[in-house]
């Protein structure tokens, strides 16, 4: 039987970093403080954000991703066989500059070289009160393939990708999930931009240029994710969040979920999906028709990109629209993404985080009648 979410309301996980934490990270980068001193500052910030989440009324509690720079890099580069190229500043055609995201390459056999999230989870768990569930967020394993494609994976280590590369990555993820489960973790969310990117024709064309078929990739990724799910420890809820980009309140892709919906909802053996539905770039709810019994879709109807508040009646109307394609009892509500997928944060005030989350909780309680 599929394990249920802690509540009908949830959140994706990241929060704006407090100023003192950002300053401490800069001090660490300059060599003014030690890694241990930085971790003590992170501990303080995490204790505060845990209390914030509990006070707001959330049931699932994260560490705000306060120990990370990027939602994905900090985890993936700790896998054996993975290397990160240093990000560079690029000049766009209009003359403005932006920081190009780091590029990950697989240079050797992928393996679970160490427990990556264990110590972080243990601290989070120690701060979370009774009646709440600590949630760990990690990047989806597809992040090791999509950005670079075949060219980003060593042919010496992997002359053929299928099945050895996918098996090795799944084994590494399985080892990580087992280490977390042994410490008492029951809720893990995998963050995935790639399936959402495959809803955008520009991104689909980029995949073709890398030698991949964008129609085939969602089904290949479903089989890939299922290799991880097959190793999920008993009693652990495994969810996936789809994101179209969340760097400084911008997005990288747009498009209806239709090109990936069947592979995502019907073929993947996940427990829950967090789907962005906060504006027109996400399309309509029709793709939800593929949702089988026993799974939950968390509707990301409240934006984290900007501070303007949504109208509660509009949210209820949109939930009703979604329920035309998937049973209401298989739906839940959340913000569309985290408030700070990278250390840079979104263009939103700190206090707006509280207002947005309270809106989500109040709306969900009125719709589903939950406590």
Automatic annotation (TrEMBL):
It comes from the Bacteria. CDD domains: CIMS_C_terminal_like. One of its GO terms (biological process) is methylation. Residues 12-342 form the Cobalamin-independent methionine synthase MetE C-terminal/archaeal domain. It is an enzyme of class 2 (transferase). Gene3D superfamilies: 3.20.20.210. Pfam families: Meth_synt_2. Keywords: Methyltransferase, Transferase. SUPFAM superfamilies: UROD/MetE-like. Its EC number is 2.1.1.14. One of its GO terms (molecular function) is zinc ion binding. InterPro entries: Met_Synth_C/arc, UROD/MetE-like_sf. This is 5-methyltetrahydropteroyltriglutamate--homocysteine S-methyltransferase. It comes from Variovorax terrae.
């Amino acid at each position: 039987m599929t394990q249920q979410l802690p509540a009908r309301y949830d959140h994706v996980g990241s929060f704006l970093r407090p100023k003192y934490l950002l300053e401490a990270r800069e001090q660490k980068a300059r060599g003014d403080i030690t890694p241990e001193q930085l971790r003590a500052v992170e501990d303080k910030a995490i204790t505060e954000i845990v209390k914030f989440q509990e006070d707001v009324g959330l049931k699932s509690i994260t560490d705000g991703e306060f120990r990370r720079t990027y939602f994905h890099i900090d985890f993936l580069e700790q896998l054996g066989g993975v290397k990160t190229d240093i990000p560079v500043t690029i000049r766009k055609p209009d003359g403005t500059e932006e920081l190009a995201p780091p590029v990950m390459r697989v240079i050797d056999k992928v393996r679970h070289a160490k427990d990556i999230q264990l110590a972080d989870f243990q601290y989070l768990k120690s701060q979370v009160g009774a009646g709440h569930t600590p949630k760990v967020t990690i990047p989806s394993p597809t992040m090791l393939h999509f950005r670079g494609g075949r060219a980003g994976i060593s042919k010496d280590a992997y002359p053929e990708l299928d099945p050895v590369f996918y098996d090795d990555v799944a084994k590494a993820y399985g080892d990580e999930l087992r280490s977390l489960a042994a410490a008492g973790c029951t809720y893990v969310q995998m963050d995935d931009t790639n399936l959402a990117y495959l809803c955008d024709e520009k991104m689909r064309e980029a995949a073709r240029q890398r030698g991949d078929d964008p129609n085939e990739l969602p089904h290949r990724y479903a089989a890939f994710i299922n290799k991880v799910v097959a190793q999920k420890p008993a009693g652990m809820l495994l969810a996936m969040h789809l994101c179209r980009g969340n760097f400084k309140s911008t997005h990288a892709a747009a498009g209806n979920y239709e090109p990936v919906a069947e592979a995502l909802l019907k073929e993947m053996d996940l427990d829950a999906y967090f789907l962005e539905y906060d504006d027109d770039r996400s399309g309509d709810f029709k793709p939800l028709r593929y949702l089988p019994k026993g799974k939950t879709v968390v509707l990301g109807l409240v934006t984290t990109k900007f501070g303007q508040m949504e109208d509660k009646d509009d949210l209820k109307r949109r939930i009703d629209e979604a329920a035309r394609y998937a049973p209401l009892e298989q739906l839940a509500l959340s913000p569309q993404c985290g408030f700070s997928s990278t250390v840079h944060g979104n263009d939103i005030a700190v206090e707006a985080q509280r207002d947005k989350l309270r809106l989500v909780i109040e709306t969900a309680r009125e719709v589903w009648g939950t406590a």
